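We modelled the chain as a single entity of 265 amino acids. Its sequence is:
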Amino acid sequence: MLAIWSQPETWISLATLSAMEIVLGIDNIVFLTILAGKLPREKQALARRLGLAAALGTRLLLLLAISWLMGLTADLFRIFGQGISGRDLILAAGGIFLVGKATFEIHDKLESAHEASGPSGGGRATFGWTILQIALLDIVFSLDSVITAVGMAQHLQVMVAAMVLAVGVMLAFAGPIGRFVEEHPTVKMLALAFLILIGVMLTVEAFEHHIPRGYVYFAMAFSLGVEMLNLRLRRKAEAPVHLHHRFEDDPQARKTAKEQLEFDL
């Protein structure tokens, strides 16, 4: 069992699979961030940790049931000549749920009147219901993750190690990402749009129309990059007005603060 770790191929496989698992985990982090943001601030970190622990547990359980998992790819029935497997049903259900959930959240942000109870109207979602939604969607996100791991690595130990490393990285970045999204409403709206995109992708894949994930992730990264430029532009445009009101009686202090802000930007 330990002999495989002395082979360079094992470490190359571990690094490659870990990187792939981290990329596939982007969907999970986006969904986790949105749901955890509905909770009171003091419970958000715990929800993120429990959500990622559930994601790891789901992946490991699916790995231990590889034969059952591979059986999910067998056709259960056919519709108009199209074979439908257990995996297809799970992906379709998860995709439709994501589209519906993201659409509801967008409508909630745009149309509903929120009480001033926190940055995201926290307190309206229950902790248990949030964790249950995360756990259920973890099953959907874990399917492709585990199937990818089985196809890329030959040893179960390597698959387990890669998944533990990937979840560890996601756990380290989930908190900062969650706080950043909550502090910027436009980024949160963009994240909800990403969820709709991911939901559509899962639904389409359920009917055997594969969309290369590279295209989807590139579109997400490009959109996020543009939004980062917009945030910086807004901050730079608002800075002179803020400085004017703060230092209107002290021109020298205003000049110094403005120069420091421009340096920071």
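As a brief sanity check on the tokenised model: The radius of gyration is 22 Å. Confidence is low (pLDDT under 50) at residues 115-123.
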